[in-house]
Amino acid sequence: MKSFRSLFVANRLWFVLTTMVLLFITAYAFPILFPLVRVAFVVFVVLIGLDVWLLFRPQARAGIFARREVPDRLSNGDENPITIYLENQYAFQTYVEVIDEIPFQFQRRDVLFRARLNPRETRAIRYELRPTRRGEYNFGAVNVFALSPLGLVKRRYQFEQGKLVAVYPSYLQMRQYELLAATNRLNEVGVKRIRRIGHSMEFEQVRPYTTGDDVRTINWKATSRRSDAQGASLMINAYQDERSQPVYCLIDKGRVMQSPFEGLTLLDYAINASLVLSNIALMKQDRAGILTFSDHVGQLLPADRRSGHMLRILELLYRQKTRFLETDYESLYASVRTHIRQRSLLLLFTNFETVSAMQRQLPYLRRLAKDHLLLVVFFENTELRSLLDQPATDTEQIYLKTIGEKFTFEKKQIVKELAQYGIQTILTAPQNLTANTVNKYLELKARGMI
């Protein structure tokens, strides 16, 4: 780690210089003041020399040390913590300004921090960055400007900490769901607790009753024996969920998925939701797979649940990019029919704005639903929703609200028409996509449909 030192003029010095110039002009008009101005100038020069000596004297050695701590990879769409550690090695109190050279993709010019460090004090400055695109991000140097208590000059320290960091799909969100699922607290992120309708015939164990269990599974004989031995306590029969069911996320990379929402494209929302859902499916002992498509079929990762499969899913999703072409559902159907032979749950992440757009693809959707359990996931237009919630005040706004109502109605019509052919649907706002998708998967699993 290399440090570069430079001398900069502090704001206070510019103020003093301006004052000295004004004093010399005044002394030119009133010569009696010239000796006093000359003494003030000498004192000023001595103070500058003292300030430079305090900051640059050999005994100061490094003076200020700084180090940036950034994760090896960042999570797309999430707030990622960044930490800068500062250490004051001067023997006096120092005022510092820290400018961190963050990647240009963030388009931020406000990463400036100020701090006051006592002698030998160490401090951590923490802030967060939210990337909105997957890819490689390059961090630059950490610049620290140190001022002595006099504050007339600044000494710059530049710590070359260039680092290339990859931005992956939202693995922080995946870990959050994984942790909440392990502690049975998924309801905190909007995932509902779903009562199982029926159960498989594979008996697992007899265990104590907990709130939310199906009362029809109470084992009265076991309850009677336990009540006699340890006091009253209900016991139930626990059954295993069906396992090793293939779950595929089909991700549309066509131009309809390029629409932005809060900085992220619909494709990125679909990728983040697919990552979380795949992880939940693996936790449920199902097999997770990915298939991407646009004007042609992209990559196919067969459904599996072996060790390391989640990492393969993450790497595949990291490399996906939007293609600005019309999606070819015929190629999708042909690929699914060729490579996915076992009946599976297919979650199709796409977007239909109009009924006619959906009807053009309906023959292929019906064929997919004939061999598999098809769940079509598409998006609400949240901008239209905010427009509809505002009262109209003139003719133009009435016209816009009428058009907005038409598009909103067509979204609901798409849901109804797909339901007529037994195709499951999710119509959701982008920010609710992950929770709604996980809810639907758990519902289908509880109903024994997969």
Which short descriptors sum up this protein?
membrane, DUF58 domain-containing protein, 450 residues, 3 domains, transmembrane helix, Immunoglobulin-like, Rossmann fold, 6-stranded mixed sheet, alpha/beta
Word description of this protein:
The protein is α/β, with parallel strands linked by helices and 450 residues long. The chain folds into 3 domains: 1-168, Immunoglobulins (Immunoglobulin-like, Sandwich), CATH 2.60.40.10; 171-195 and 243-447, Rossmann fold (3-Layer(aba) Sandwich), CATH 3.40.50.410; 201-241, no CATH class. Helix content is 38%, strand content 28%. It has 11 helices and 21 strands. It has a 6-stranded mixed beta sheet with strand order 18-17-14-19-20-21, with helices on both faces. A 5-stranded antiparallel beta sheet has the order 1-10-9-5-6. A 3-stranded antiparallel beta sheet has the order 2-4-7, with no helix packed on it. Helix 1 packs antiparallel against helix 2 (34-56) and helix 5 packs parallel to helix 11. It starts with a strand and ends with a helix.
